[in-house]
Amino acid sequence: MNRILSTYLKHLLTFGDLTVTDSGGGVTRWGDGTGDPVHLRFNTAAAERGVAINPGLKFGEAYMNGDVDITEGTIFDMLALVFRNAGNRAQHEPWMRAIARLRLIYRRVIQNNTPQRARRNVKHHYDLSKELYDLFLDVDRQYSCAYFDRPGAGLDEAQLAKKRHIAAKLAFDTPRLKTLDIGCGWGGMGLYLARYLDADVTGITLSDEQLAIARARAEEAGMSGRLEFRLEDYRDTIGPFDRIVSVGMFEHVGVDFYDDYFRQCARLLDEDGVMLLHTIGRWEEPANTNAFINKYIFPGGYLPTLSQISQCAERAGLIITDVEVLRLHYAETLRHWRDRFAARRDEAKALYDERFCRMWEFYLAASETAFRWQDCVVFQVQLARKVETLPITRDYMMAAETKLRELEQPGIVRRHLAPSEEDRQAAE
Hints:
This protein is α/β, with parallel strands linked by helices. It is built from 19 helices and 11 strands.
């Protein structure tokens, strides 16, 4: 076995049961023999060398290309074993730090998300076949972290709870509030806000596929007059808006454009407006995006720390009025996606090919393990322009969620959260 790789595995694996068959046919066992066994086989010497030198990129590539096979267990089991042993220690190995420093040199080139490049990056991922996303997403096509508000919740229920949770934080207190959805996806969030809160929603995306589906869904729901979906970069949007929501889009902005993003949001937000930013982030210090994910899945992507968000929001004149850190919710979301994809893998292979399926399996498994055993979380950051815009306790959020649950039930006529006459009299 490659000496560098052998030394690394010996240092890394203090527990578990990993057997490695190297490209020459040699077999070595690592760990203390506990837990379910995992067997990894290198099919080429080039793959073995590549993983030894740059595992963050080359292991995923080797698996995707069939140069590595998991002959016992799954790719998720393999990654779970590595990251449960390592935590974040792997990132602090001297040679891993050296690779990270080299990547930092050209990070500004990778993340130079100009309008033209941002559109190209979005098309790379979100303009894949719509049938692919039907294989593993929920019924509403929510492609972001769900909110598991009770044990045992299914994916559809948890994604509905996510929309409800976000809507409650936006504090819709009157109907017909002008609302901007930055990175509207397939339109699910906008449809929810228009249906249950009487919001007038403008959704913007850079994906042709998402735009077509969002518009069709609005038409089918008979809500085209309340929903407008546009192919538009956030930098070109003209306001003002009473509410701004952005779910799973900020990861594509690029760290060098954070100041521009928040300044634009501040310009777009009405003086009494409220914004809710929902984004993947890191709880440790700033770091590079995983090399495999950046190259093959989300080019130009970057996961911010809370400090990076707050500093840029402050410079833009926005006030952070509430922060929630969703821990492990995305791990559970990804578990559902991974299981659903595996159950319909043959259909994905018919749409694309074996290499694509292996790439997607690695992406889902690597993402889940990152949220379970590395430093990935989801931030929900509420922002306003005035300190007195929102109530000074969080009770309004819980009350809004309760009312939204009622509105979601079939047969409920009342469609927004403006206080009823009874509520106003009680307040007086």
